[in-house]
Amino acid sequence: MGMYGLVVKNLSAPLRLRVKDIPLYALMLAVVVIVYGMQSYNIGFENGHHGWPSAHGLAIFSHVEPETRFVGHAQAFLRDDGRLLYDYFDRYPLFFGVFMRGFFTITDDLPTEIMIFRHVMNTIFLLTMFAAYRLVRLFTENALLAFGITVTAFSSFYFTYYKDQIHYDQPALLGMLWLLVAIGRFKLGRGPRWQVYAVAIAAVAMGRGYASLFVLAVWFAVDAITVLAGRGDPVGRPDSIPQRILEVFRLDAFRVAVLASVWASVLLGYNVYAEIALTGEPLDETSIYNSARRRLPFSGDDVLAGLNISEPEETVPPAENEYAFNGVGGFVLIQLQRVVLWFAPLQLGGEMGWRFKPYEDPLEFNIIRMAAAVALLAMAIGFAARQAPLRRQIALVTAFGGLAWVLFMINLSAKHIYVTMYSAGLTLVVWMALLLWTERSQWLVRGVVIVGMALFALSNWQARQTLNAESATLDTYTLDFDRVHEQMGSGDGVVYLAYGYYRPWCIINNNQCYVLGYYLSDYLLTEDYAASDYVLSPRPYHIAPQFTDAGESLNLLTPVRTDNVITYFMDRAQSQPRTAPSDAAPMFRFGEHITLQSWEFVGNINAQPCETVGIESWWLADDTPDANFNMQVVMVDENGGAVTEANSPLALVPTQLWEVGRFTFDQRPLTVPCDTPPGEYPLIMGVYDPNSLVPQPATDGDGNDVGNQVYLTTVFVQ
User: Fold this and answer.
1) What is the DSSP-derived secondary structure letter of residue 419?
2) Which of 124, 383, 564, 616 has the smallest number of CB atoms closer than 10 Å to its CB?
3) Full-model pTM
């Protein structure tokens, strides 16, 4: 043939392969475009199990520093005794945290930063899909069909909803699926032994990679049963039971499992060491140790304590409660139903509440969903039974490796629906059972691909719309903090969390408060005002002390950024004095016990559109009010319609907690809408009960009834 002919042959063979596979490459590119192109544009942190794990993950990544030995923590609090309280330390191998920390160097712009991290998770999701595709290819020679099965399996709404969640489970799932690929290739003689060992080491170190230990455990169990039953390769098969037992411990599955377990212990031990070295706490008081006690099923005084899914901070009511399904029964029920959710395309499996909290909410026994769950498990087992011995073993490990982790982590997976993503292997096996028969016809294969792509695109669209709707009001927190960072720059100090009595201490509208660890990663947090340098508040001002006597002063803090709308950051070094009136004669009385002692207009009475003005007022209670009242100041037009208003709880302390006979202060900024036409706009004030919406009757200083609204002044818009 000659040298020229050999070169032509070697070049043309891969060229023909690429040309043949162009449709497959184009489809894979389309998946990439769908994932990135239909990415939700939200920059806030949603309620429930997408927002708070993302905020938690970012908080930990933001604290991965050489000073912490590259083991991050969510938040750091300055306690009253001057010691630091960390809540809480990273429990997972440091490699992923270090990797994610590197992306903080790209930009200081918070919205851009969040989108970068979301796209990192999208990339992990795409790599996970590719691993799933390679796994399905072990069961079919038809590449297009393997692709169609993969996109169909990943068209579940829950897959696409959680794909950009910034947390540890997605990389763990990625490692788990690549581990399954390595195991399958090795068992079928397509991959070397060392590859399984290498991938197992990598998988355990990826995010919550300890989950991969359960894949190895199921692999070992399947291979051990095969050897003990004498059903392996007859060449060199041990005949006696003792020989078979010895052979079990020579299995690659056993050796890899031991190696990976030792490696996982080393990684976890390093994290514990880093926490102890930084905090000086004993082992049994570290956050990692206590997290394990809460999460592991054998935690507590006995096994039943864990299996009842109880945690130290929760109270389990008496056994005679009204619900039929709780504890283990409720856990099994809800996990079976969640498997259906993660199997079904779009949301055809229905919706499920985010959390299962035993003894708190009744569980719905959905007979259709339960029957579907049993059918899915039966299909997976039936599919494995129909395979040749080696593929049967691979199918069983794929279907039940991740599910074993979900069942084991009962205290975690019961309350966290996103943990069900580890059942992806079961989902793949079931879809193979349903669709592999179509490989007999290329037209059927093309139909699977077309339908799968359509479902996948629609699922991504649904997830995008859902996330954007959930975060519509929450993006403002990120924008507020971004403006604070722009104003303050990077620095350090102690931030007092002045969240008042009306909100959870975390202020952010989220069921966890880790978001502050991310937003304020350069600062320590505290609930001790005297120890703070800055104040973070849901209100556009802060006062200290909150009550004062006539003629005495307090310090008024105002935001460093006046254009924030929800979250306000204040520098204590820039406080302004305000003096309570010496004359105690009331101007107006609202209800029976609350009086307005004095008020002052702040800003330009001849205001421009878009300009901010306001009212500062002093209040007094001569007895404890019978409710916690709100106050509103409204700028009205000539027809009495509201042009703009400031409506929130009166002062910073609930009125039922006011100190009788002592003054408290209230500040109400009002922004004149930018489209306000020139004219005269009266300012009126009212006090009302926010629960009943009943306004409080008002009287003037002479005791005359003036209705339930009082006139203050008129703003002249120029």
Assistant:
1) G
2) 616
3) 0.88
